[in-house]
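Handout, section 4.2: multi-component inputs.
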Amino acid sequence: MGLEQEVEVLRRIPLFANIEPARLKLMAFASQRMTFKPNQALCREGEAGDAAYIIVEGTADILKDTEDGPVKVAQVGRNAIIGEIAILIDVPRTASVVATEELTALKITKDLFYRLIADFPEMGVEIMRVLARRLEETTAKLGEVEDRLRRAERGG
Amino acid sequence: MESNLFRYIWRHSKRDQLAILLLVVVSLPFYFMSLHLPKQIVNQGIQGQGFESITDTQPFARMYLPFGSELFGEPLLLFEGFSLQQPGFLLALSFTFLALVCINGGFKFVINTAKGRLGERMLRRLRYELTDRLLRFRLRSLRRMKSAEVATMVKDEVEPLGGFIGDAFVTPAFLGGQAITAMAFIMVQSIWLGLVAAAILAVQAILIPKLRVPILRLGKQRQITARQLAGRIGEVIDGATEVHAHDASNWERTELTSRLGRIFEIRFEIYRRKFFVKFLNNFLGQFTPFIFYAVGGLLAIYGQLDIGALVAVIAAYKDLPGPVRELLNWEQTRNDVQIKYDQVIEQFQQTDVLPPNHQDPHAEIPTLKGTLTVSGLSLTDENNNRLLDQVAFEMPLSGSLAVVGDATSGKDHLTQVLAGLTPPSGGSVRAGEQDLTRLPEAALGRRLGYVGPDAYLFPLSVRDNLIYGLKHRPLAPPERDDDARRLHAWHTAEARRTGNIDYDPEADWIDYEAAGVEGPDELEARLIEVLHLVDLDRDIYRFGLGGTLDPEARPEVARNILEARGRLAEHLAKQGHDDLVVRFDRDAYNPNASLAENLLFGTPRKPEYAPEALPDNRLVLDVLREAELEEAILAKGLSIAQTMVEIFADLPPGHPFFDQFSFISADDLPEFRQLVQRAGKSGPAALPEADRKRLLALPFRYIEARHRLDLIDEGFAARLLDARRALHQRVEAEDPEAVAFYEAREYNAAASLMDNVLFGRVVYGRAEAEETIQAAIAETLEDLGLHDTVVGIGMDFNVGVAGKMLSASQRQKVAIARAVVKRPDLLILNEATAVMDGATRAQLLDRLLQQRGETGIVWALERARLAERFDRVLVLQNGRLAEQGGFAELKDGGKALPELLAAD
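Output:
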C-alpha cells in the first residue's frame, strides 16, 4: 500500500475527516505503518508507552490482567485509536492490545503525536471528542456495574 | 646530556668523521688530476705538442718517483710508460679523463652517502636520547610540558642537525685547507699583496660573524615562537569542544594571527639583516681584487712589482673567495644548529628523571605479599603546600581498602604515591619486606595496577589496549624468512650503533604468565572473562557484529559465519519469522533497501561507490544511460521533490520533521520548489545539468518499503535489475576492487559481520522485527559457538585517538580491565568509576571486589557510601588521616565519615 492509498484510508477515519489532504499526507509519511500477526501485541499492560496506534485494517482484543489471567474487556477494529492514554499522561500501559487477525496500524510516536496536535489543533479537538465518548461509555458501564452490585448485595 | 654540540658529535662519531676526512684526502689527487687533464688533451692530444710528425711517439703514463731529483740528485724512473702515436695518445688521454670522471663521481657518491648516513645516525641517536629522557621524566615535570611543543622539538627542531653533522669536521678541514693553500700561494708571489689580502680577510672573518650575532638571536626567537605556535595549535585541537561551546573561534583566530604576525616580524628582520651581511660580504670579497688592480697596477706601472707576479697573485686570488665564503656560511650554520641544539637540550636537561635502571626490563620482580604498611607519608607540591600530611595505616595485601574524602582530602595524591607515580616528600610505603618507594618502575608497573579517573587509551584496538600492561620485554622471537631475518639483523645492528634500544618490536612481548594463561588462545578467553567482569562484554559483542573480518586471514571464522547465515534462515523459518527478512537476491528488487543499494548490489569498498556518491559516479551514470534508466530515475526524483514540496510546504523551517523524514532539508526546500516549477513548465528533460544532478540524487536514497511513495513498479524493477547486472560486469572489468558484491555463498569482506549473517534487510513496518531478528542472530551465533569469536572481532575495534570512539564509561571500563588482566598484587583505583552511572558503578564494584582473588584493592571512592563494601575505610581530610576502621564502626562511632555520608 502506497502513501496515496494510506491517505485515503486515513481520510475515512472520523478523527481525521476534517483535515486537509496535504496534512494527512505528511502524517502518513511521518508515521510508521506496522503490520502485526495474530496474537502479536501492539502494547502490553504495565510497560512504558512511547507510541499510539491507529488501526487501518484488522481487529484486536483489549485485555486486562487479572488474577485469573488476561480478560478480554473490549474488541477494537478499523479506525480505532489506541494507546493514546499512556503517551498523553505518562502512565504505564493500562491494558494490553493483541491482534486477533493480521492487523495493519499506523504507529504514531509520542513526539509525532504532540507535534501534530500542536500544529493542527483540530486534531486535538477530535481526540478530546473520542476520549469524552470513551469516558461517557465507561461511566455508563460503571453505573451498570454498581447497579448490579447493589442488587447482588440485596439479594445476598 | 652533552651541552656542546661539537663535543657531542665528536664523541659519538669521531671514527666516522676521520674516515670521511681520509676519503676526502684520498680523493683530492684524482680531483686535481682531472682539472689538469683537459689542458693536456687540447695541447698534446689534439694540437700535437711534442709530436714531431704523425709517426712520432711519446711516452704515456711515464712515472717518476715524486721528489726523486731532490732525494737522489736525479729523477728516479718508476715506470717507463707506453710509447704512443698522437691518435693513440689522444685516445689514451680521453679514456683517462673518462676514468677520472668515474673515479671522482664514485668518490663523491661514497663520501656523500657516508656523510648522509653519519648525519642520520647521529640524528637517530639524538632523537632516541630525547625520547628516552622523555620516558624517564617524572609525571610532575611532564604535566608542565605541551605535547605538541615536545613533538616539534624531537621531530622538526633537531632535523637540520642531521644535514650539518656530516659536514661538521670535513667542511672546515677541506675549505680551510683550500683557503690556506691559496693564501700561501699569494704570499709566495708577493708578500705585501698577501698581507693586504690577509688583512681584508681578517676584517671579513671578524666583522661578518659579529654582524650575524643578532641574526642568530632572532633565529632563536623564531624557533621558540614557532614551537609555541605548534603548542597553541595543539591546544586549540585539544580544546575544540570548549572553543565551539563558548564561541571562542574568533578569539583563537586573533590569538593565532598575533603569533603569525610575530613570526613574520622576526623573519622579516632576519631577512633584512641577512641580506645586508651578504652584501657586505660580497663587497669585501671584491674589495681585495680592487686593491690588487689599483695598488698592484700602480706598483707595476712604476716598476715596483713584476707584472708576471701580479697576474699570478690575481690568478691565485681567484681560488680564495669561494672557500672563504663557504667557510663563513659553515660558521653560520654551525652557530644556528648549536642554538637549535641548545634550545632543545635545555628542555630535556632537567635533573628530575628516573635513573635508567628503574626501567630495566630484566630487573628481578619480587611478588608483593604480607602487609602494606604506610607510615608518616607526606607530600608537598612546588609551593610547599601540604597535599598529604603524616598519613599512616596498615592493610593486608589481600584485603580491600576504601579511601574517602572530599576533593581537597588528598585521596587522589595518596593513590598516586602508593602506585609509585609520585615520589613522596617523606615517610615510607612498605609491602611486607619491600620498600615500595625504592622499588623500580619495572617492579611497580608489573606488581601494581593503577587506574585514574580519566585513563588514557591508545589509538589501538580494544585488545591491544587490554594487553598493554603485559608488554614489558620481548619474550619469544617472531618467525621470519631469510630476507626478513637479514633485514632485522641490519636494523638491530643499526640500532646498537646509534645507542638505541635493540629489542624486536615484532617479537611476542605478551607476558602470558603474568596474565595467568598458557598462550594466545587462553589469553583470548581470559580477556573475554575480564570484559565480562567489567561489564563490557555486551558492548564489545555489538562492536563485533558491526565489525569486519578478513576471510583470507581467518577462513574458518568466515566459514562459520556463512554457516550461521544458513542457520539463521532455518531458525527464522522454523519460528515462522521468515517474513521479517528480505534476503539479497540477484534477481529481485529488495524494497527494504535503498535504490542505490539495489543498483549496486554490494558493499562499496571505494568512496566513489558510496550511496551518496553514486549520482556523480561516471561509470554508474554510463550504465544507467545505457539501460535507459536515467530519465526514469530523474522522473522519480521529480516525483519525490514534488511530494516533499507539497507536504512540507506548511511546516516552518527548523521543524524536526525535516531532519527526521524529509529527503530535502528545510534550507533547500525553496530551491526545490522553484526546481519543481521549472520542471513543470519545461519538462524534466529540459532541466539544466545542475538541476538534473540534484533531482537524480534523491531517488538513490529512496527505500520503497519505508517511504511508501509507490515509485518502484515491476517494470522499473526489472530494468533496474538489468542495470545491476550490467554494472556488475562493468565494475568487475574496470575496477574490480571497488565493490564487494553480494554472493549468497560467499563471505563479504567489506560488509559487517551482522550483514554477513543476515544477508538481507529487516522488513520495514513489521512489529518487533528488529528485536526478533537481533535475538535470532544472537541465538544462532551462540548455538554455533561463535559468541566468543564475535567478541574477539569486537576486540579488534579501534578505540580512536585517546579512546574517543568509546564513551567515557566504556573507556574507564577498558582501563580497569587493562589493570585487572595483568593480575597485580595490589590494584589501586583513583575515582576510576566516577563517570559511570550509579547502577553500573555498584555492579562493577561488587564484581571486582568479589572476584579479585588474592589481589588487594585500594580504591579512592568518589562517594563515601560505596565504602560499605570494603574491609576497611580511610577517611582523609585536608591531607590528614581523619579516621580509619570498618565502615559500620565509623558510621556509628566516627565523625568524619557520617559527615561525608550526609553530604553524599
